[in-house]
Amino acid sequence: MRRLLLLVFLSPLFMAGPVAAEGFFLEPPRIGTGGVTQLHWVGETPFMALVRYRDTVLRFWPDAHGASLLLGADLEQEEGIYPLLLVAVDRLGKASFSRLELTVEQVERPQEALILPKSMVHPDAAARKRIAQERTQLKELYARSLRPPQATSLQLPLQAEVSSPFGLGRILNGVQRSPHAGIDFRAASGTLIKAAAAGDVLLVDDLYYTGRTILLDHGQGLLTLYAHLSSSRVTEGETVKIGAPIGRVGNSGRSTGAHLHWGVRLRGDRIDPLGLTAPK
């Protein structure tokens, strides 16, 4: 039954066929790059619900109103209208097919120019090899989280001034580099950092660019990253509660002063952490 349903769901016939929007809705239907939206199935919790988004099939997770799923648009995703092909199957095997559209808009962001030591901008051969290995390691970790969600919103990991916003364009020593994929908080070295949500500790390691780094898995592909720490208070495999102390602010890795770099990934997409921060 499941195999047949997936074959129908992925076929061109489904893409071209008549659809209905009953039961499914998208909130909001329009987001900027680096933003998030939530898909909902309202009604009796289905036996299974799936969506096809950017050629990837994702499953919904049961919630108090039926089922839901977070979707994101990467920081550098192309703007446009993205079809969402949906199916929900009840416990008697009846399938409901729908089609919605997610509009992604480009967000204009500021830029800054920095002059850094040459070694920080142009690593030597040994450092480049290490950087490539660490990128592969992180990419694999970003793709690993397939378990039920523990959180769909976040709290700030500390109370401090934002020194560099999400998406900030960076020109380092006259060369355009990748935009800033997180938020930097300016804070004194040793300031306590807390878990932004309940989750499992996927990584505690010293990385070339981000120094002492912690990666937490919050389920359904949602991960938070805490970088440039002076010390960590958790170990890999440990489960932490929201607000639990996990480390302290530092100046490790490629850094020009004590601060916390806080990043969010949703199935690998670079997401603005403030877009998931629960309103006070």
Give the termini distance in whole angstroms: 45 Å
Low-confidence stretches: 10-21
Corresponding CATH superfamily of the largest domain: Glucose Permease (Domain IIA)
Proper CATH architecture of the largest domain: Distorted Sandwich
What is the N-to-C order of secondary-structure elements (H for helix, E for strand)? HHEEEEEEEEEEHHEEEEEEEEEEEE
The general outline is: globular
How many separate helices? 4
| Mean model confidence by pLDDT | 89
Oligomeric status: single chain
Q: Tell me the domain tally.
A: 2
- The strand count comes to 22
Percent of residues in β-strands: 35-45%
Q: Which class best fits the helix and strand makeup?
A: mainly beta
Give the radius of gyration: 20 Å
Main beta sheet:
10 strands, antiparallel
List the helices and strands and how they pair.
Blueprint: H1 2-10, H2 12-16, E1 24-27, E2 30-32, E3 36-42, E4 48-53, E5 56-59, E6 61-63, E7 66-72, E8 80-89, E9 95-105, E10 111-114, H3 118-121, H4 125-142, E11 161-164, E12 169-172, E13 175-177, E14 182-186, E15 192-194, E16 199-207, E17 211-217, E18 222-232, E19 239-240, E20 245-249, E21 259-266, E22 269-271
Parallel strand pairs: 2-9, 10-12
Antiparallel strand pairs: 1-3, 3-7, 4-5, 4-8, 6-7, 8-9, 11-14, 12-13, 14-21, 15-20, 16-17, 16-19, 17-18, 18-20, 18-21, 21-22
In short:
Helix content is 13%, strand content 44%. It has 280 residues and is mostly beta strands. 32% of the residues are buried.
Description:
This protein has four helices and 22 strands. The protein is mainly β. It has two domains: 2-105, Immunoglobulins (Immunoglobulin-like), CATH 2.60.40.10; 111-276, Glucose Permease (Domain IIA) (Distorted Sandwich). Strands 11, 14, 15, 16, 17, 18, 19, 20, 21 and 22 form a ten-stranded antiparallel beta sheet that branches. Strands 2-9-8-4-5 form a five-stranded mixed beta sheet, covered by helices on one side. A hairpin with a 3-residue loop joins strand 16 (199-207) and strand 17. The termini are far apart.
